[in-house]
Write a structure and sequence with these properties.
Blueprint: E1 6-7, H1 8-15, H2 23-41, E2 44-45, E3 54-56, E4 63-65, E5 72-73, H3 92-95, H4 103-118, H5 130-141, H6 168-171, H7 177-186, H8 197-201, H9 204-228, E6 244-248, E7 251-254
Antiparallel strand pairs: 1-3, 2-5, 3-4, 6-7
Pfam families: Pkinase
InterPro entries: Kinase-like_dom_sf, MAPK, Prot_kinase_dom, Ser/Thr_kinase_AS
Keywords: ATP-binding, Kinase, Nucleotide-binding, Serine/threonine-protein kinase, Transferase
Length: about 280
């Protein structure tokens, strides 16, 4: 389907309440990861990744990362402002006012990935505030242990209900095993346990799509080669086909008919009976 130039957020909203087609998350995720990986290689953290900041091309196939207003060039691990990223896509270390680095982008991409699969945000806390957002996260991935909790945070783990992690199969039954595995690695509570963008690009969920694309390209090229060497058979004159124009969500009419016709009442040669 060809779509106008838009944001990923609008594209996902258009598919609600159903998740988008199965190929879309795989193809789009690879493009997002490729862009974020380029930034990370150059020690740049975007810090505000969300569907509203992902542009979609006119044909609905290409993505571009936008809005780098909050991006920063950083070292390996420094304390930056916590006023970044829309709440639903904000990593736990940012919510806990802890030091953070490139893994915050991986968390945000994981949130976008899950949203593409399920058709709605994964960590959609109903109330604003860091504690409410953390509770929403813990209700899905489980409450961390004291050993996993960042020591520099002023918020303590005993302030939260002890949730058990929900199986990804229960949360995303439509996702493949590879998709669930990659998502679980992207949404790890501890930043150092989170998969990197580079390793994500080498995950079977992504590489299987690349292999499939190569096979499809080879098949298409073979079809074009065969078509070029085929001579179309001579056929008798055929009447022109009727060209249909989209005029409304429920009506298709011939191109030659630009006005609304009267009700379809036809008369037979011998009388006025309707046909």
């Amino acid at each position: 389907m060809v779509v106008p130039k838009t944001f990923l957020h609008r594209l996902l909203t258009a598919f609600l309440p159903c998740p988008v087609s199965r190929w879309l998350p795989q193809d789009f995720l690879a493009q997002i990861l490729d862009g974020v990986d380029w930034m990370h290689v150059n020690n740049i953290v975007h810090r505000d990744l969300k569907p509203q900041n992902i542009l979609v091309s006119c044909d609905g196939k290409k993505l571009k990362i936008a809005d780098l207003g909050l991006s920063r060039s950083i070292g390996s691990n420094v304390v930056l402002s916590t006023q970044v990223v829309t709440q639903w896509y904000r990593a736990p270390e940012v919510l806990l006012h802890s030091s953070y680095s490139k893994p915050v982008d991986v968390w945000s991409v994981g949130c976008i990935f899950a949203e593409m699969i399920r058709g709605r945000p994964l960590f959609a806390a109903r109330r604003k505030g860091e504690k409410h957002q953390l509770e929403e996260i813990f209700s899905i991935i489980g409450t961390p242990t004291t050993a996993q909790w960042p020591v520099e945070s002023s918020i303590t783990v005993d302030q939260f209900v002890q949730f058990k992690a929900k199986p990804w199969l229960q949360l995303l039954p439509e996702a493949s095993d590879d998709a669930q595995d990659l998502l679980s690695q992207m949404l790890q509570f501890q930043p150092l346990q989170r998969v990197s963008t580079k390793d994500s690009l080498h995950h079977p969920y992504i590489t299987s799509k690349a292999s499939q694309d190569e096979v499809e390209e080879e098949e298409e090229e073979e079809e074009r080669r065969v078509t070029r060497h085929q001579t179309p058979p001579k056929t008798a004159h055929t009447p022109p086909t009727r060209v249909l124009i989209w005029t409304s969500p429920t009506l298709l009419i011939p191109e030659s008919s630009q006005t609304q016709p009267p009700p379809p009442v036809l008369h037979s040669r011998g009388g006025r009976g309707q046909v």
